Amino acid sequence: IRCLKKETPAPGISLSTTEIPELQAGELLIRVKRAAICGTDVHIYNWDEWSQRTVPTPMVTGHEYSGVVEAVGDGVKGFQVGDRVTGEGHIVCGHCRNCRGGRQHLCHNTVGVGVNRPGAFAELFTLPATNAFKLPEEISDDMASIMDPLGNAVHCCLSFDLVGEDVLITGAGPIGIMAAAICRHLGARFVVITDVNEYRLGLARACGADLAINVGGANADDLLKSAMTDLGMLEGFDVGLEMSGHGSALRNMLNNMAHGGKLAILGIPAEPFPIDMDKLVFKGLTVKGIYGREMYETWYKMRNMLIGGLSKRLAPIITHNLKLEQYKEGFEIMRSGQSGKVILEF
Ligand code: NAD
Ligand code: ZN
Q1: Which of 15, 114, 272, 310 fits 305 for a cystine, CB–CB 3.0-4.6 Å?
Q2: Judgement on whether residues 254 and 300 belong to the same structural domain of the protein
């Protein structure tokens, strides 16, 4: 079968072939229809320090996909051949303290699909059935293939009450843009998003941000202050969603939060950076780090949000549909920053 594989510990990913994986008890064999390129795949493609530390080679990459159940392993309940599915990419141990406590997304022994075990950039791959998520017909193959990153955004947005609140999102990458759409969907008052990339700010506007501000070059705090004045916001943002991984963005957020504000931090910094702890203390801020998606509450809630109008709102985020063979172009587009989600068709 065809696949995209990291063959050797060096930059690049190649269009290659691999054996049909052997189906174990409790697993599904999934025929992939669509797969989306994640920022993580780009890290693996570039073979940065994190990938070198984390990814054994050879490895079939990819963890954002939608497909159809091709075969069902022994002991699997609730799935049949032909079911349309996507799935949670974090495979958890089931016996650590957090798993037993019902917090599987915080498992101490998480294994990543397409990172530590063969992934979804393949015509067929296996997944524990407990990780699979059955799709209703209202959710298209394309939209289903981005439910993994969308789940990150949903997890952030459902961490705090957003109804009627003013939200600041720093970073209009695919996940930040998705978050803007979700905030709108959930009934936030003002949704303001920042980035340094004009193309992505445009997508954020199309997905429902009230204001999308380019903070490259000018003083970001001044820009936000005047935006807040224009909107008639006197005291700062109620909720902050950090989705850039950049220190300047987080400092910008801390400076503009209202007293008692709440922060969900998803962005992963490339290196440690300083912040002004005073802001956190004197404003009495609540900060929550976000990893992955709650298993599986995020998935059930996301499914119904998609059916209930979120799919339509998110349509602009899918900017490129390519054939599997065009994967190099897909990675180049992702690296350029001039894209929302790039989807490969199998
Ligand atoms: P991305 O890298 O595509 O988007 C980040 C955006 O931040 C870019 O558009 C960039 O231009 C922008 N940016 C850079 N400097 C900025 C600044 N000073 N102010 C505002 N914006 C700035 O990433 P993504 O795929 O959308 O993911 C968002 C973040 O979440 C990344 O850091 C990613 O590593 C992280 N992530 C975390 C999890 C998790 O489970 N915690 C999962 C997936 C992704
Ligand atoms: Zn565990």
Answers
A1: 310
A2: no
Q: How many independent structural domains does the chain possess?
A: 2
Instruction: Looking at the structure, tell me whether residues 195 and 282 fall in a common domain.
Output: yes
For every residue of 265-297, DSSP letters joined together read: E----SS-----HHHHHHTT-EEEE--S--TTH
Whether residues 139 and 201 share a domain: the answer is no
Residues 183, 314 share a domain = no
Range of the domain at 274: 160-289
CA distance 153 to 142: 17
Write the CA distances from 105 to 93, 177, 208, 297, 333, integer angstroms: 10, 23, 29, 10, 31
Residue nearest to atom 23 of ligand 1 (CA): 173
ipTM of predicted complex: 0.99
Write the CATH number for 229: 3.40.50.720
Core vs surface per residue 220-258: b (16+ CB within 10 A) or e: beebbeebbeeeebeebbbbbbbbbbbbebbbbbbebbb
Query: For residue range 244-302, what is the model confidence (pLDDT) as tens digits?
Result: 999 999 999 999 999 999 999 999 999 999 999 999 999 999 999 999 999 999 999 99
Using CB distances shorter than 6 Å, the residues near ligand 1 are 39, 152, 170-176, 194-197, 200, 215, 243-246, 248-249, 266-268, 290-292
